[in-house]
Amino acid sequence: MAKSFDRRRLLTGAALGAAGVVTGSAFGSFAPEAALAAEPTPGIDPGMPDPNFAEGLIRSISDDTISALGSDGTLWRVRVTSGTSVWKLKPTTFDNVAVGDGMYARGAVLDDGTIAADSVWANIVNLKAHVTSIGEQKLYLDHNDERVIAHVIPGTTAAVYNGTPAISDVSMVKVDSHVQVLGAWLPGTNEIEISTIYAAA
C-alpha cells in the first residue's frame, strides 16, 4: 500500500510540475509486454474495469494531455509527465504520439479524473497468428481469418525462438508456423511493424 501511495504522490507531483525532472521509466516499464500484463490492481474486484488503465483511439493532443475514445465509449484524458515512459514500436518520446494512434496507458487517477501516466503505449498489438508466406522484410500472417502484413524493421525487430534470448535474425521463422507478434499497428491499414516475434525454431 505504501508503494502505491508513494507512486500516486510522485505521479501527481510530476503532473503538477512539483517533482522536478523524473527520468523515463522511473515508474513504468518500457517493455511492451507490460501493456498487456494481466496484473490486477489491489482493491479492484475481478471483472471490474481498472480505473488506473485507459485504452482508446487518440482524438486530440493538447500540450501534455491526450484525449482518447475508449472501445467502450469512455472518454479518457491522460496526462504525460516528465516521468512517463512512451513506447511506439520502441521506447520513444511523447512528440512521436499522434492523433489517430491507438493508445494504452497506465498511471494514477488525479482528483480531476485525469490519469497521470507512468507508461503510454501507442498502437501496440499482440497477435497470435499463422505465417502464410514470407517476403522481403515482410511476413504475411493470418490472424483470426484477417490478413496482416508484418514488417521486419532492421535494428528494431527481435525474434525469440523456443524461449531463448532475443536475437535480430528472423530467418528461422517458417511458412505455415504459428507465431506470436508484439508490434505496432500502422493506423488505417492491416499492417504492423514487428517489435518481437515469438516462434519455434
From TrEMBL:
Name used for this protein in its record: Cell wall protein
InterPro entries attached to this UniProt entry: TAT_signal
